[in-house]
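Long-time lurker. I teach an intro course on protein structure, and each term I like to show students one example going from raw sequence to a predicted 3D structure in token notation. This year I'd like something fresh instead of my usual example. Would anyone be willing to generate the tokens for the chain below so I can use it in lecture? Attribution to the forum is fine with me.
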Amino acid sequence: MKKLLGYILTPFTAIAFSLCLVIFHPIQWVCFRVFGYSAHKRAVDILNLFLLRTFYILGDTVTFINEQNLPVGRPIIFVANHQSLLDIPPLIYYLRKYHAKFVSKIELTKNIPSISYNLKHGGGANIDRKDSRQAMTEMMKLGERMKANNWSAVIFPEGTRSKDGTVKTFHSAGISMLLKKCPDALLVPIAIADAWKVMKYGYFPLNTFTPVTWTVLEPIEPGKTPVAELVLEAENRIKAALARFRIFY
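-- Reply from a regular --
Happy to contribute to a lecture. Here you go:
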């Protein structure tokens, strides 16, 4: 029944999602060109609130849990598992006061209304996976911007989305480069549960009546701990949180 409803409701969700992107593209342009960074960021925050709400058309729900007393005005590296495209809008919206920037594929900077514009002008890192030198340079620049502006970053260390929710091995290279340029950054794991189920059947149909949860976990102070150990600790905390989630839900 859920899959059948997906066939009916997915087109409405896709239309609403696309309309948001098309409508906010010129809004972003005006905000950035006329009013600068703050206005542009505000437009992007509102856009992502609308984007995450489009999934309610499917009967899916978004729950973002942050019981941590995270510092504002200190760079943070948010480390999350990656399950679907739905992961991103709630992270942008609910982490908005931390000025969280994303590490994205450079291919996404072209031909996608709103998204491409924000990736080009929002302050994140757009990396070419086929060019390690370019990717390293972009990550270093992001680390410098984080330090200079007290911005934060969101990184998916698995490198690709998990199609069944299983957490893949985290890679430490990106986080290492960010910490090299921004050593005072705090490491904060985020466990994303069941976002993969929304795209269980691919892009069509999207799954319906699926509760998805984002949980901000206890921060990790980097100190002088080797980066590989920090990343492994973040990975283990996320795995443990997801295991508890499955038990209780």
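Some talking points for your students: The first strand starts at residue 61 and ends at 66. The beta strands are 61-66, 76-80, 100-105, 125-127, 152-155, 186-193, 211-216.
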